[in-house]
Amino acid sequence: xxxxxxxxxxxxxxxxxxxxxxxxxxxxxxxxxxxxxxxxxxxxxxxxxxxxxxxxxxxxxxxxxxxxxxxxxxxxxxxxxxxxxxxxxxxxxxxxxxxxxxxxxxxxxxxxxxxxxxxxxxxxxxxxxxxxxxxxxxxxxxxxxxxxxxxxxxxxxxxxxxxxxxxxxxxxxxxxxxxxxxxxxxxxxxxxxxxxxxxxxxxxxxxxxxxxxxxxxxxxxxxxxxxxxxxxxxxxxxxxxxxxxxxxxxxxxxxxxxxxxxxxxxxxxxxxxxxxxxxxxxxxxxxxxxxxx
Amino acid sequence: xxxxxxxxxxxxxxxxxxxxxxxxxxxxxxxxxxxxxxxxxxxxxxxxxxxxxxxxxxxxxxxxxxxxxxxxxxxxxxxxxxxxxxxxxxxxxxxxxxxxxxxxxxxxxxxxxxxxxxxxxxxxxxxxxxxxxxxxxxxxxxxxxxxxxxxxxxxxxxxxxxxxxxxxxxxxxxxxxxxxxxxxxxxxxxxxxxxxxxxxxxxxxxxxxxxxxxxxxxxxxxxxxxxxxxxxxxxxxxxxxxxxxxxxxxxxxxxxxxxxxxxxxxxxxxxxxxxxxxxxxxxxxxxx
Lengths: 293, 288
Ligand SMILES: Nc1ncnc2c1ncn2[C@@H]1O[C@H](COP(=O)(O)OP(=O)(O)OP(=O)(O)O)[C@@H](O)[C@H]1O
Ligand SMILES: [Mg+2]
Prior knowledge:
heterodimer, A: alpha/beta, Rossmann fold, 6-stranded mixed sheet, 3-stranded antiparallel sheet, 10 helices, globular, B: mainly alpha, MetI-like fold, 81% helix, binds adenosine-5'-triphosphate, binds magnesium ion, membrane (chain B), transmembrane (chain B), MetI-like_sf (chain B), ABC transporter permease subunit (chain B), cell membrane (chain B)
C-alpha cells in the first residue's frame, strides 16, 4: 500500500496538542485509533546478554506530532525506535498500527521512513540512486520514480547534486540525502535516531530548520531521538523523557509556542523557559536512572 | 624568480585562472613522467644486461644478449606461439571458472552459517595443501593432461577469489542491512543491490591475486606434469629449451610468460579501476 498523506496539520493554527489530548480523552476506543499512528503497549526488550533495555514502555504517537524522545545515553531510545521500525522484535508487549495496513511482518507497508545517526548511504551509488533505493525495492522503475526523487531532493535543497557520489558531499549534505531517501516513499511516520548528533552547531541548526519546515509542509508524524535538550525544545511539540535501567517513559511534556519557531525563537524568553522545564525533567530522569542502577 | 614572473604575466586574468594554469601544468608533467619512468627503467635494465654480456664476454650458451632473444622470438615464433596459446587458454579458462565458482560458492556460503561450516573445512584443506604436491595425482585421475593442468590452475586461483568474496559479502554495513530490512527487501534484492556492490573492492582484490596465480599455477603444473607434443605450453618449451641448451629460445619463452603476466596484471587492475574509481578509496585520487 502506498501511503496517502494526511492533510497537512499545522501546529500553529487550530488546536494545540494539549487541547488535542483534552479532546481525545473522552473519546471511545473506536475513534482513538484514527488519531494514533503507532502505539507501544508494555513493550519490554531483553537482549541476549541479559541487558533489560526497555521495561513495560507504553507510548501513543498521535498523527501530526513532532515527538522527541529525550534521555541519557543508554536509556533505550534507539532500541525503542528500532522496535517501532520493526528492526528487532520486542521481547514482550505489542506495537500497534491502528490506521495502517500491515504486511506479513507486522509492519505498515511503506509507511515508515528511518534516518540513522550516520547518513548510511551506499558509497557506490549516486545521490539519485541512493534516494531511488526505497522505490526500487518496491519495484518502481527508474523513470517512473524520477519525479518523486527529484521532489525529495528539492525538498532538502539538493536538486543540483543528483549525479554526485556520497564521497563528494559534506557531512550535512549526506544527512540531507538520507532525509530525502526517508521522505521519498511519502511515509506517514518519520523516525530519526540522533540524525544530527555528529554535525557542527551551525549545520545542525540549519537542518533543524529544514526538518521543521518539512514537517509543517507535509504534516508527517516525526519521532526524533536526541540527547539534546535544546534541539528537542526547538523542534518538538511533545517531548517524551526516558529514564535508564530500565528504559521507561518518565515524563511526557507538551511544548507550545506562541510564535514561529525561527531564529528569533532560539533567543526568546519562551524558548529559555521551555529548555529549563525540559532540563529539569531530564535531570529527574537521570536521577531515577542512577537510583535504578 | 620564475614563479614571480609567471604570476605577474597572468595576473590580469585573475587568481582563479592562475591556479588553473598552474594545476594543469603539474598535471601534464606528472602524467608524462608516470608513463615515461617505467619504460626508461626497463630500457635501462636491458641496457645493463647488454653491457654485462659485452664487458664480461658471456658466451651465448650461458646467457644470450637481448638481441639474440629478440631474434629467437622471431625465428622460433612458429614453435612458441602455439605453446603461448595453450598456456593462455589454460590460464584464462581456469581464471574464468574460478571467478564463476568462487563468486557463486561465496554467495551460497554466506546464505547460512551451517552451509559455511559444512564446506569450509574442505576449502581450507585444499587451500593449504601445496598444489604442486597434488599435481601428479591429478595427472593420474584426470582424463588428459590438459584437464589436469586446468584443474591445478583453477584450484589455485579459486581460493583467493572465494575467501575475498566471502569476506566482502560479510562486510556489509549493518545499518545498510537494516535499511534494506526496513523497506522489506527480498533476499535477492539485498544480494543484488547491497551485498554484491559492497563486495566489489574485495572482488577486485581477489581478481588481481587470482589472475596472477592462475598463470603461475598453469606454468608450475606443467612443470610437474610434463606435457609434450601438440598440447605443450610455454613451461614445456622452457624445459625443452633448457635441455637442448637453446638459451635464446628459453629466454624468449620466459619473456612471453612475463609479458602475459604483466598483461594480466594490467587487465585486472583496469577492471578494478573501472569498478571502483567512482567511489572506493582504493581506486580514488585524493585531492585532500
Ligand atoms: N544488540 C545489543 N545487545 C545487547 N545490549 C544492547 C544491544 N543494543 C543495545 N543494548 C543495550 O541496551 C541499552 C539501550 O541501548 P540503546 O542503544 O537503545 O540506548 P540509547 O538510548 O539509544 O543510547 P545513546 O543515546 O547512547 O544512543 C544499553 O544499555 C545498551 O548497552
Ligand atoms: Mg542510540
